[in-house]
Amino acid sequence: MKITDVRAIQPVGENSPADWRTSLGQILVAIDTDSGITGYGVGGGGLAGMHVVKTVLRDLLLGRNPEEISQLWDEMYQATLAFGRKGIAVMALSGVDLALWDLRGKHEQQPLVSLLGGKPGKKIPTYRTVWDPQELQTISGHAGYKLHLGKVAAPGQRELMISAIEQARSLIGPDPLLMVDAWMKWDVESTIAISQEIASSRIEWIEEPLSPDDLAGYRLLKEQSAVPIAGGEHEFTSAAFGQLIEEQLHSVLQPDVCWCGGLTELIKIYTMANKAGLRVCPHRGCEIWALHAIAALDPDPLAETGRPWMTWVAGQPEVKEGTIELSDRPGFGLLFDEQNLFLVN
Fold first, then answer.
1. Catalytic positions, please?
2. If you count Cβ atoms within 10 Å of the first and of the last residue's Cβ in the chain, which end, N or C, has fewer?
3. What residue ranges do the domains of the chain occupy?
């Protein structure tokens, strides 16, 4: 089996947000082969990511055996090293890597969860992200809920944030998990202070209170935060996660498989984290791209709800009664309408 083409487009679904999450957050990659099988993956980087795919990565992959995923990943990373390592180039590479894995599953006629040592059909508990505690009045059934404070998460708004967190706990009751997402907008002082105030509300973790680059700050939080710290959504490659794991700067690691380097890197991150006794909870884990790894590799699986505007992805399993499960369809098990996607774009 040889690669005959590598294509990339940027579909935009209904209600897709008019911000970077649409313009830079997502691209669809398709890899065609001489066997007639096409593999699909979702990466990121927008138009810039598509340019990386269509030029550097496509040229490298044409005529190659798509089953040599690890070797191809190393070569793609090396080919983008001068302008990559993190960010848009790795986001683009992620989509290609996922498409290669989809090809492998389809070629072997197995769902990827099976190739990773798991089984389809396992019910995985889910948690839902909300942006306003009032949303919690109308939803239920999930194992947990994450309150995203990105719109108000400034150090000077501590009381507002603490009140919102306490309100969220009151609305969901004592049993479900409750997490808080600061979206890189706090500082060390405010995180320590807020963690002490909200610890009584039994918060599972505070997510990304600092910039991913502030490792010194995370070292302080590791020792002084009253609530476990989570992070990694905006980090790239297993090499970068290796330092987080070695120093145990996060209690919960949250790689995004569509951005961090694809399934190849997510598997490495799981392996390192499991060995170190740290939890992995991939960003947007209910999306099919990470779900196979969660089902196969995670000793304590928990999947975050995904992007509702990705309506152009067909075959994604639905959350039912607070759980989600994989089918036995080969590869990732998804379908794409080539005529209405690639021929239009």
1. 283
2. C
3. 3-109+337-341, 115-324
